[in-house]
Amino acid sequence: MKTLVLVSHPEYDNSMTEAFLKQCQSDIENVDWVVLDNIQTDFTFDKEQEQQRLAQYDRILFQFPMYWYSAPALMKKYEDDVFTKNFIAFEQEGVLKGKEMGIITTLGDPIKDYQVGGREGFSISELLKPYQAIAQGGQMKFLKPFVISQFAYMTDAQKQKLLIDYRSYLTNDNFDSFASFQKWYIKQLTVLKASLDDDKQNRMDILIDYLQSNYDQLDELKWEIDLIKKEDDE
């Protein structure tokens, strides 16, 4: 699977969050990180070039800070220039069909504020409906948004979890499934093991074996549950 991350941030060079996320994915093959500021000319994008770029990827992710309940102006301009109606639904029908679209957005406020009854009054999913509509028009699969709230206040442990979750969102075929995540995580540890010394490799083997054992038990439990459901249906 090839993933494209399209990044827009008015203060990109000064953003601790963007610097952290860029470092998180820097060693991953088949993930390309594109900063919109670097590919625009006079606040305009090359429509044909960008449409060709999008056609190369399986998962297309828009990454930006939430600005007044939407994306920054440059991200919106990219959408206006590149996601033409003909490109999405008519002239080149099928180019986007079956691809995945996802949103990675950062918040300066607590995530609990973004809900009915919260301070902002709307959920993140509600605010991102226009992207879901674009995905639907292009017959794409719209992924659950990846929301990062108050990065500046995160502890080291929270940042470590963010690193893992972010890499999963970029590369895991089914990141929202616990079983799929565990399988993906085992694969990541196996790759990491090759770069360790012998002592650490042995310790890593113990961890991988433990996780694999739990994964096998989870898979067996799922099989038993499916069997019970089938018997009930009969």
Automatic annotation (TrEMBL):
Xref: InterPro entries: Flavodoxin_fold (IPR003680), Flavoprotein-like_sf (IPR029039), KefG/KefF (IPR046980)
Residue ranges of domain Flavodoxin-like fold in the record: 1-167
Gene Ontology terms for molecular function: electron transfer activity; FMN binding; NAD(P)H dehydrogenase (quinone) activity
SUPFAM superfamilies reported for this sequence: Flavoproteins
Pfam family, one: Flavodoxin_2
UniProt entry keywords in alphabetical sequence: Oxidoreductase
Protein name (Swiss-Prot/TrEMBL): Flavodoxin-like fold domain-containing protein
Lineage of source species: Bacteria, Bacillati, Bacillota, Bacilli, Lactobacillales
